[in-house]
Amino acid sequence: MSLLAMGFLLGILKPSTSQFPRACANTQSLLRKECCPLWDGDRSPCGEVSSRGSCQNILLSQAPLGPQFPFSGVDDREDWPSIFYNRTCRCEGNFMGFNCGECKFGFSGPNCTERRLRTRRNILQLTTSEKDKFLAYLNLAKNTPSQDYVIATGTYTQMNNGSNPMFRNINMYDLFVWMHYYASRDTLLGGSNVWRDIDFAHEAPGFLPWHRVFLLMWEREIQKITGDENFTIPYWDWRDAEDCVVCTDEYMGGRHNTNPNLLSPASFFSSWQVICTRSEEYNSQQALCNATNEGPILRNPGNNDKSRTPRLPSSAEVEFCLSLTQYESGPMDKMANYSFRNTLEGFADPQTAISNISQSGLHNALHIYMNGSMSQVQGSANDPIFLLHHAFVDSIFERWLRRHRPMLEVYPAANAPIGHNRENYMVPFIPLFRNGEFFKPSRELGYDYEYLQEPELDSFQEFLMPYLEQARQIWGWLVGAAVIGGIVAAVLTALVLACQKKRRGTSSEIQPLLTESEDYNNISYQSNF
């Protein structure tokens, strides 16, 4: 894209969203534990004058957690966001946002009453101009400071319980990289001690809803800073791919000629700097990532450990995963067997659904295959392929939802790992979202996938699948009922024929006697199952 066009996009900059609202990143808000900013429309907290929302106490889930995190009161993310704020805006109707100044996903208009459905498309099927626009939007996000949000550079304790705020500015793209890091970072226990078996965005039921919110919010920010209300994140369908077809200078950056771990200088992604990739350094310093630049994007697709991930996932593996009827099972972590979530995430074998953490399947396989920045959990969002990948993972989640049509109660209400129960708020989003709120079809959230809309036959088959599955489960009963019904019908037919024969062989003087004790014409035969 030309410098003139990029300059135009920068000139129409609008506010962005996610993480700590700038209006609440101050001593007064932290000490009061209140984040209820003014809405610009009427200059009242949460737009209360306009009936958009009001400042309310946060209602935290009291459901028990799983045993994976044996501590309490040591991590700022516990009972999010109560360590920082216990009062936030509670929005009414279809209003949303940290100050109720926006519309819920899937709604638009001045009063958020207009439904809107956008379609995510395959990046390989975009026109050249559509693809170039997407790449330009990515670069714009990397060079546009977030107007509404800042990131925390210290824990609440390091902030002296709010009297010494530690926040800093960040660009819009890196804001989301930092959020992904913050949700998956280790717990700092003091000294040189950390607890690694904790993750508010992975390895548990919230994996799919969390990344669904992540993509929706990222999508909205691009819509806002560009003014392009129709923008959607494209996806990369990696099923049966023999190599990384988007790893070219035309798309997400090709391989460097002399250093296979770097991107080609012909791609502007080669100049991008990564953040939040040095987890061991942060742990040893008992510090948070402060979004300092840490070097270029690393990527060497296909030169990964083949014993762990021999190839990219296949269509057959995706179909097997979709056939699993349980969303979650057992310990509800990476050891879960026959769990759709755990199999799609990649900790369970995509051919048996048995947990096998020595292998990386489906979602995890793609991360390992990229063999670089994408392969380290906390900093994986630095590589823009992350967005294409997770959009496709979300589409598989969507197919499962449409096929099995689960009730909300299918999502675990209790005993999941910390932060993953149905009513837990997702870390570190402000405005607040509960895990269960995004366990529903994407159309209810205002978006769909192009390949799920056509051909019509596939959609019809997806519609029929839950009913066919139910029929399969009761097939034995159906066959038994059919056999019994056939026997009963044969017996009844024989009786009727016998009666008719008897009537033909009886004199007219005797026939009326049949109706003296009962009404022959009203006799009926019923078989009940």
Automatic annotation (TrEMBL):
Residues 202-219, 383-394 form the Tyrosinase copper-binding domain. Its main location: membrane. It is a single-pass type I membrane protein. GO terms for biological process: melanin biosynthetic process; pigmentation. InterPro entries: Di-copper_centre_dom_sf, Tyrosinase/Hemocyanin, Tyrosinase_Cu-bd. Its cofactor is Cu(2+). Pfam families: Tyrosinase. It is found in: Melanosome membrane. It is an enzyme of class 1 (oxidoreductase). Keywords: Copper, Glycoprotein, Melanin biosynthesis, Membrane, Metal-binding, Monooxygenase, Oxidoreductase, Signal, Transmembrane, Transmembrane helix. Its EC number is 1.14.18.1. The keyword Cell inner membrane does not apply. One of its GO terms (molecular function) is metal ion binding. Residues 1-18 form the signal peptide. The chain crosses the membrane at residues 474-498. GO terms for cellular component: melanosome membrane. Belongs to the tyrosinase family. This is Tyrosinase. It comes from Pluvianellus socialis (Magellanic plover). The gene is Tyr.
